[in-house]
Design a protein that fits this description.
10 helices, mainly alpha, 2 strands, two-stranded antiparallel ribbon, 2% strand, globular
Length: 248
Amino acid sequence: MTGFKKLAFVETKLFLREKAATLAVFALPLALVLGFGLIPGFDKPQKGLSDQIGTEYIASIGVAIVLVSLGLNGVPMVIAQYRERGILRRLAVTPVRPLTLLIAKLTVWAAAAVLSVALVIAVVRLAFHVPVPVAPGWFIASLVLGIAALFAVGMLVAAVAPNARTATGLGMVLFFPNMFFAGIYFPTEEMSPTLRQIGNFTPLGAAVHALRDSWMGLDPRLEYLGIMAAWALVGGAVAARFFRWEQA
């Protein structure tokens, strides 16, 4: 077994042991979908949601919560902890490089996000007869870009934060505005044009728009895909430039 596979296996076990993370990634979106799905009439197109089926809309919100929880909460906190505890420094003197650990960690979390999304789609399909994403290619592209964008921002936070506590705090500072502008608390259709435009340029806002459009069978606007790609590329590049393997 290669070093990457061993680390990925270990990181998977560590992830599954963290009950809070497991609940946030798998249980929370399913509970959200099931709770709203039982509301009478919510399985019909809603005028206030651009005629999207209510349960379908909530499913896309559940997907967004998974991405932002992992990207802006999990990534900064855990990576900063690894550096603070000297794990990355100790790996530097072994055949397994610290970068391999980071890639393994991000791969496990990305796989968890994809699995959670698949579960959400399966549940809304079986329980509420909600159609699967009508434009699967665009949906997958939007999901991958959303993961890349939010994970890159999380890595940027981990790169500049001096310790795990600060990383957690900065992650939360970014978490709530992203949730708000993306329409997690209330639909963007109810926001002012200014707030909607601000939300379009956030990584989570662009992801939610693209996921909703592709789920309904619409081609997501290229600006949403471009915004997510820009966050991924710029955030990743800056994170790589300033990332420290040892605590300052």
